[in-house]
Design brief:
Layout (H helix, E strand, L loop, with lengths): L10 H15 L4 E2 L2 H6 L16 E3 L4 H14 L3 E4 L18 E4 L6 E5 L4 E4 L5 H10 L4 E2 L10 H6 L15 E7 L5 E3 L33 E8 L1 E2 L3 E9 L4 H15 L7 E4 L1 H7 L14 H10 L5 E9 L1 H16 L7 E6 L27 E6 L1 E4 L2 H18 L5 E5 L3 E11 L3 H20 L3 E2 L7 H7 L2 H17 L23
Parallel strand pairs: 2-4, 3-4
Antiparallel strand pairs: 1-2, 5-6, 6-10, 7-11, 8-9, 8-10, 12-14, 12-15, 13-14, 13-18, 16-19, 17-19, 17-20, 18-19
The structure holds flavin-adenine dinucleotide (FAD).
Flavin-adenine dinucleotide binds next to strand 3, helix 5 and strand 10.
Length: 519
């Protein structure tokens, strides 16, 4: 594998920078062999991994080491791409946006610094994984629950910074952030919110601090390296009640959203229900070739046959109520009545009470079995996620669903989408699953992705998050007043990062020094 240097940095200067980094973290934590570089590439990439090749990776263990690395990066003009655990699968994994960037892997900074059961929060270093925090809470019998993504291999901090989400009432992880410690690209160390007061006793309690509030400015951002994150955790409820509902027809997703949205907004449902096409369950457990060997996307009649054999509707709604038993029962009755207007079949009910096994509770119990979907097409699988945000209303959901499904069919990829319902909007995560070694398929997927961005933008739908290859494309859809938001972001970037060393290109924000590398 060819070494790709950071733009404008000679090999001699680069080697000097690596030596300086080794002086800080120790030689064994500067990873610069071909094999190392390969490890930090996007191993789910749709044939474009070579656009995002890291030049090396460096793994600090402390805040002081991070600060020293930032000083070196500024001195040698070597860009850094911070990751917490780098499991950002479907969005670029550990790979940097700009080739030649050094990955700053914070996985060794993995201390759980504080967990406060009384006030329901934790303070974490970036390398703490969902599994680590879960085991810590379990081992110490702390009655606080986390909210985990469907694939929970990654870090609590990385997921929240990317505005990832889980499925409990505390599901929107970025909303639970309360106080950050950040190393700015110019080396300055800051604490946000009440952490800016050295002796504050409410850093993890009060989000806003005094004056402008910065936590969200470090999310999906290249303004700083987060070295500590305060996060609210959910007190264990007395009971939960899950409802799993099969919807027989493709268009049922429309009325289901219209029925659920007011209940979500009023707090009858406090978590974010997921309505996913049921193919996801089949794709997690079997391979496509077991069902169909033909070309093109799975024909509708074959799909219906598969769903029938697996006792599944076209969509499955998974929702759960958390709290007092009596209240859950009343809310479940209201939800069942809403669905009975449209579907006759039995609604599966799953009940959990404090003291029962946590497995069926609806607590964030980390798992990685969702990863199995990438085996669907056979070969070395991968996937990419296209994730627009729509108003929680049938007219938008149906329009987006039909248009996306049609686009998938045009290139012969099976539709695999879900709508997660928040208070006022729904996030529509569409996965494109492919065989990474099938060049024809991956090039069609890349073209499809651009078409989907354009289709969505025409309707006024933005992406909630995107893969590193499409960060500029998505940024350009935010076009009000000739992209004035991008100019604002770039002005802040310039002020904080004059040498352009931190995550150039992230979310389409390029420091002036790096703009020639913009695609
Ligand atoms: C099958 C499947 C299902 C999935 N389901 C979900 C889901 O339900 N919900 C969901 O949210 N995601 C989901 N994902 C996407 C992804 O796996 C998770 O979001 C994962 O948590 C992200 O990886 P990570 O936590 O290791 O973050 P990282 O890869 O460490 O970080 C992501 C990005 O955040 C920035 N960043 C990270 N740490 C820092 C830091 N300390 N300072 C500054 N910037 C930083 C960087 O730009 C980095 O590239 C799914 C993926 C797959 C494959």
């Amino acid at each position: 594998m060819r070494l790709v240097l950071p733009p404008g940095v000679s090999e001699t200067v680069f080697q000097k920078a690596l030596q300086a980094l080794a002086g800080v973290v120790g030689k064994q934590w500067v990873l610069a062999t071909d094999e190392d570089r390969e490890t930090f590439m996007d191993f789910y990439a749709a044939g474009d991994a070579d656009l995002h090749v890291p030049s090396a990776a460096v793994g600090p263990q402390s805040l002081e080491e991070v600060q020293a690395i930032v000083r070196i990066a500024n001195e040698y003009k070597v860009p850094l791409w911070p990751i917490s655990r780098g499991k950002n699968l479907g969005y670029g994994a550990a790979a940097p946006c700009m080739s030649g960037t050094v990955v700053l892997d914070l996985a060794r900074m993995n201390r759980i610094l504080d967990v406060n059961e009384r006030f329901g929060y934790c303070l974490l270093e970036p390398g703490v994984g969902f599994f680590d925090l879960f085991h810590y809470l379990q081992a110490n019998k702390i009655k606080l629950w986390m909210s985990i993504p469907a694939n929970a291999w990654g870090s609590v901090v990385g997921n929240a910074l990317e505005r990832g989400y889980g499925y409990t009432p505390y599901g929107e992880n970025t909303r639970n952030i309360c106080g950050l410690e950040v190393v700015l690209p110019n080396g300055e160390l800051v604490r946000t919110g009440n952490g800016a007061m050295s002796n504050s006793v409410s850093w993890q309690l009060f989000k806003y601090g005094y004056g402008p509030s910065w936590d969200q400015l470090f999310c999906q951002s290249n303004f700083g390296i987060v070295t500590k994150m305060g996060m609210w955790l959910m007190p264990e409820p007395e009971a939960t009640l899950g409802l799993n509902i099969q919807l027989p027809n493709p268009d049922d997703v429309g009325w289901a959203i219209d029925e659920l949205a007011p209940l979500r907004m009023r707090g009858v449902i406090e978590q974010s229900p997921s309505i996913g096409n049921s193919l996801r369950f089949v794709a997690s457990a079997t391979q496509r070739s077991q069902w169909y060997q033909g070309d093109g996307a799975l024909p509708d009649d074959v799909l219906l046959e598969i769903l029938k054999k697996n006792n599944l509707g076209w969509w499955t709604v998974n929702l759960r109520l958390y709290g007092y038993d009596e209240v859950n029962e009343v809310h479940a009755r209201i939800i069942r009545e809403a669905f009975r207007k449209h579907v006759k079949q039995e609604i599966e009910t799953v009940k959990w009470h404090r003291g029962d096994s946590i497995e069926n509770s609806g607590a964030g119990v980390p798992a990685t079995n969702a990863l199995q979907i990438i085996n669907w097409r056979g070969g070395r699988g991968g996937h990419i996620g296209f994730s627009p945000v729509l108003p929680a209303a049938s007219e938008h959901v149906l329009k987006q669903f039909h248009s996306t499904k049609k686009r998938y069919e045009e290139i012969g990829v099976d539709y695999y989408g879900s709508f997660t319902l928040f208070e006022r909007y729904t996030t529509n995560v569409n996965m494109m699953v492919y065989d990474r070694d099938d060049q024809e398929m991956t090039s069609k997927v890349r073209a499809l992705f651009k078409v989907l961005i354009a289709d969505a933008a025409r309707e006024g739908y933005s992406e909630y998050r995107t893969h590193i290859s499409y960060m500029d494309d998505v940024a350009l859809t935010f076009d009000f007043n000739h992209h004035s938001l991008l100019r604002l972001n770039e002005a802040v970037k310039e002020a904080l990062d004059p040498n352009g060393i931190l995550a150039p290109g992230k979310q389409g924000v390029w420091p002036r020094a790096r703009r020639p590398a913009r695609a």
